UniProtKB/TrEMBL annotation, chain A:
Residues 1-77 form the 2Fe-2S ferredoxin-type domain. InterPro entries: 2Fe-2S-bd, 2Fe-2S-bd_dom_sf, 2Fe-2S_ferredoxin-like_sf, 2Fe-2S_ferredoxin-type, 2Fe2S_fd_BS, Beta-grasp_dom_sf, Diverse_Oxidoreductases. The lineage of its organism: Bacteria, Pseudomonadati, Pseudomonadota, Betaproteobacteria, Burkholderiales. Keywords: 2Fe-2S, Iron, Iron-sulfur, Metal-binding, Oxidoreductase. GO terms for molecular function: 2 iron, 2 sulfur cluster binding; metal ion binding; oxidoreductase activity. Pfam families: Fer2, Fer2_2. This is (2Fe-2S)-binding protein. CDD domains: fer2. It comes from Kinneretia aquatilis.
């Protein structure tokens, strides 16, 4: 059965099990390996992507749920102002350590900033606490989100 | 590849001895050091590249590429290694790039004698050789320019990728590529004085951040080759368990499944993709026959605890025995006893373990995030049955290591599966596989006795440790003749306090689960044990915990200095907000000295909240202070996860935890503010990946004692014990 979806702006047709999690369609069928597998149960956030702009855990989202929708991954998020600002702040503030969780962190941060241009620390706590990091980059993530927020408001975005 | 070099990787190793030998001084490391050269003269492999040794490639576009033989698991080696070389090369940092080196004996870690990353050794081990490598290349570039300008080399200097002459001559390194390649490689290049450093010691952003923020960073799990299949593996709950029943036909009937393979230690399903492989595994309905080892089949955490207790009570392998304990007790003003215990811990790297292996007739190739590129080559050679020289190891980025990726379980399994199936096989552990696969931080019990003299000073300490042996489990170390696994007692046997009467003994207890290195190894539990018990002694003496420590560390100026710095920055002894309390702890590990003050309050539900941790660090001369700050913060987060939540427990021979719902780790909302303060030092560099972890748990539990009067003697912390009564 063929499933149509748009991934990072490109119309895509996949002939795959509709029950298969979106994560494996992205990683294996489309070879977009920036989205990571961490827990398989929506417990760690490493696989976070945007589905019609909303953050979802790709490991627990069946491919069928993405049919007809727009999927944005870490490979495509830089096409948006918010994505670019977040990626730049991440580099500027030296956020990544091992880096494995950072795709998911960035996708969650971008979704937060899209919804709320100037998030408070409490907003960040709420939006980011589903994204685990074993390297302990949390404080840098918090600062980088504020930094990206400042960049975006400077540019009048 | 030079077979003589790779052969040396199989030499018997004692990680501990190597660590000890290397930790002494940077000078020690230069003994026997030789630049990894092939010919006497640096012959560029290609005429357009200056490559005087394995670590450097300089091209006419002025770009400097440094090859890093250490594995990047977040600790920043892909930045630190280039910084070391670039400093002495006088490179323009903006033109410096880095590449992961292949498995090749020329990149052996001098402190291990093999190409491996761990024990917080990378900077310590490479501090001298990588600077020598940069200095040698610089001298060759200078010599090339001197010849062109017909000037004595002594009249030239270098700056930011250029050689400069006395009367305004200036040439970029890139223009000297061919000429420098004809120069002899100096055997004893001159190193800079640290006062002249321009790159080392300056906060420097990581070189790998861009790739780690745009999806292009490649981890082991991202590796792919044409024709590969994905495998999942149901591992036996313990060695000796055998498959009892399975529906192989049902598994094979799943669309995409290509093969079911039974290995000595598990059953694998190979498929066209991960999802199909997992569907196949479910269809397999595999059951295990556990009857071969009834004790293992019945293993429970209560049993583990009882075995460790027995080990401690019968501890007969003596690590330290000095003074007269009985006499000290007789003369004491006070004695105290306490039993402490910690559980097994999983590493829970964010990237589940995985390996892509491809065994062909006489060769093999693997793609994996490993802490031991060299040992991986050896292991794959043995498992695949091909010569080591024909094994190519592609070391990818590691999505967390923490010691776990020093083990070869996943590599061995992937290699076997490729060999049997004849295909490239990428084996992926799912989270539950990863968590149940063993290689845990050992559970450990210690029974303490202590005494205070008439002045309230610590005069006696006795510690009996019951714990499994990492040395025995490692496969490359042996417990020495005295029977003491040095890792089980590290931090205790070499405890730093002025205690004249001391006895530290070890009783090996082996409940069964495979144990392994876990960030800071024995220090991870022993600093909790010792720094808690020292706190108990301080309170028993009616002394301030900071002053008690300072007074008893009279021969440890570096520990005193970090204690003072942490205390002063935290405002130790000053008034804190209502309900907030301080705890302090200090430890030396991996050549570095760290004190931490934790600010903690206790919720109504007994749950401790750590608001802030102030860390003071003396890790000698620094390479990248930004990395140091982030590594200490990282080590604190890792230690706090373990102190609050970490435990692997067993029931009926099986691990009870399977994912982050039952093996919780710290979340962003729980992360304390962390302040890291460095002690300026000219000492040899110490390690930094691990030393921030040991003092964290005791700093927190000592604060809990200050807050509640409850002494936490078991980790993880049980909030039920901290609920205010009445």
């Amino acid at each position: 059965m063929s499933i149509q979806l748009t991934v990072n702006g490109q119309a895509t047709s996949l002939d795959a099990d509709p029950d298969m999690p979106l994560l494996w369609a992205l990683r294996e069928d489309l070879r977009l390996t920036g989205t990571k597998f961490g827990c398989g149960m929506a417990l760690c956030g490493a696989c976070t992507v945007h589905l019609d702009g909303q953050p979802v855990r790709a490991c627990s989202t069946p491919l069928s749920a993405a049919a007809g929708k727009k999927v944005t991954t870490i490979e495509g998020v830089g096409a948006s102002k918010t994505g670019r600002a977040v990626q730049a702040s991440w580099v500027k503030l030296d956020v990544p350590q091992c880096g494995y969780c950072q795709s998911g962190q960035i996708m969650s941060a971008c979704a937060l900033l899209a919804a709320k241009k100037k998030p408070s620390d409490a907003d960040i706590d709420q939006a980011m606490s589903g994204n685990l990091c074993r390297c302990g980059t949390y404080n840098q993530i918090r600062v980088a989100i504020h930094d990206a927020s400042a960049t975006l408001s400077q540019k009048g975005a | 590849m030079d077979a003589r070099h790779t052969a040396s990787a199989s030499a018997p190793l004692n990680r501990r001895q190597l660590l000890k030998a290397g930790a002494g001084s940077a000078a020690a490391l230069s003994i026997g050091f030789a630049l990894p050269l092939s010919p006497r003269q640096a012959q560029a492999q290609a005429s357009n590249t200056f490559a005087p040794h394995a670590w450097l490639r300089l091209t006419p576009d002025n770009r400097v590429t440094v090859l890093c033989g250490s594995s990047e698991m977040g600790q920043g080696v892909l930045t630190a290694i280039p910084m070391l070389l670039a400093e002495e090369l006088d490179a323009d940092w903006r033109l410096v790039g880095v590449e992961q080196a292949p498995a090749d004996g020329r990149f052996n870690n001098p402190m291990f004698g093999m190409q491996a990353t761990g024990g917080s050794t990378t900077v310590r081990a490479h501090w001298t050789p990588l600077r020598q490598a940069g200095a040698a290349a610089r001298e060759m570039l200078v010599a090339a320019a001197a010849a062109q300008w017909q000037l004595p080399a002594a009249q030239l200097r270098t700056e930011r990728g250029h050689v400069l002459g006395p009367t305004g001559q200036k040439v970029a390194y890139g223009a000297l590529v061919a000429a420098a390649s004809q120069q002899l490689v100096p055997s004893a290049p001159k190193l800079k004085a640290s006062a002249d450093f321009k790159i080392l010691g300056r906060p420097t952003r990581r070189l790998d951040s861009p790739a780690k923020t745009n999806g292009t960073a490649r981890f082991g799990i991202d590796a792919q080759v044409e024709g590969m299949v994905i495998a999942v593996l149901s591992r036996a709950p313990f060695e000796g368990a055998k498959p009892k029943g399975m529906d192989e036909a049902a598994a094979r009937a799943v669309k995409g499944v290509v093969q079911v393979i039974t290995l000595p230690f598990g059953v694998a399903v190979l498929a066209q993709g991960y999802w199909a492989a997992q569907q196949g595994r479910q269809a397999l309905k595999l059951e295990w026959d556990l009857s071969a080892k009834p004790e293992q089949a019945a293993l429970s955490t209560a049993q583990v605890s009882a075995l460790l207790q027995q080990g401690a009570e019968q501890a007969s392998a003596v690590a330290v025995d000095q003074g007269n304990l009985k006499h000290a007790v007789a003369e004491s003003s006070k004695t105290l006893n306490a039993r402490y215990e910690v559980p097994y811990l999983a590493h829970a790297c964010m990237e589940p373990l995985n390996c892509l292996a491809w065994v062909q007739a006489d060769r093999a190739e693997v793609w994996t995030g490993t802490q031991g590129s060299g040992p991986t080559q050896m292991v794959v050679s043995q498992v695949a049955g091909v010569p080591q020289a024909n094994v190519k190891v592609n070391t990818s980025l590691l999505g967390g290591g923490f010691g776990r990726r020093f083990a070869h379980d996943v590599t061995i399994a992937a290699t076997l599966l490729s060999k049997i199936s004849g295909r490239p096989v990428k084996l992926i552990y799912d989270r539950a596989d990863d968590m149940a696969a063993g290689f845990y931080r050992p559970a450990s019990v210690v029974q303490f006795e202590g005494a205070l003299d008439a002045q309230g000073r610590p005069s006696m300490l006795r510690a009996d440790v019951g714990s499994p042996s990492i040395m025995a489990a490692s496969g490359f170390m042996k417990i020495p003749e005295n029977g003491v696994d040095s890792m089980a007692v590290e931090g205790l046997a070499d405890q730093p306090y002025d205690i004249a009467n001391l006895r530290i003994a070890y009783g090996r207890a082996e409940p069964g689960p495979q144990v392994w290195f876990w960030r800071s190894v024995g220090h991870s539990q022993n600093a909790f044990f010792l720094e808690s018990f020292i706190d108990e002694m301080a309170h028993a003496a009616g002394a301030d915990p900071l002053q008690f420590r300072l007074a008893a560390l009279s021969k440890q100026p570096r520990l005193q200095a970090v204690l003072r710095l942490a205390a002063s920055k935290a405002g130790w002894g000053k008034k804190l907000p209502k309900g907030v309390f301080h705890g302090i702890a200090v430890a030396e590990s991996f050549g570095s000295f760290v004190a931490e003050v934790a600010e903690v309050s206790i919720g109504k539900d007994g749950v401790p909240k750590v608001h802030r941790v102030v860390a003071a660090v003396d890790c000698g001369q620094t390479v990248n202070p930004l990395t140091i700050q982030h590594q200490v913060e990282s080590a604190i987060c890792y230690g706090l996860s373990a102190a609050l939540y970490g435990k692997i427990t067993h029931k009926d021979g099986r691990v009870e935890q399977s994912n982050f719902h039952d093996y919780p780790v710290l979340r962003l909302s729980e992360m304390p503010k962390v302040d890291v303060h460095l002690v300026a030092s000219q000492e040899a560099p110490g390690g930094i990946g691990e030393p921030g972890t040991p003092p964290l748990a005791p700093a927190v539990t000592n604060a809990i004692f200050a807050a509640t009067g409850v002494r936490v003697r078991q980790l993880p912390i049980d909030p039920a014990l901290l609920i205010k009564k009445g």
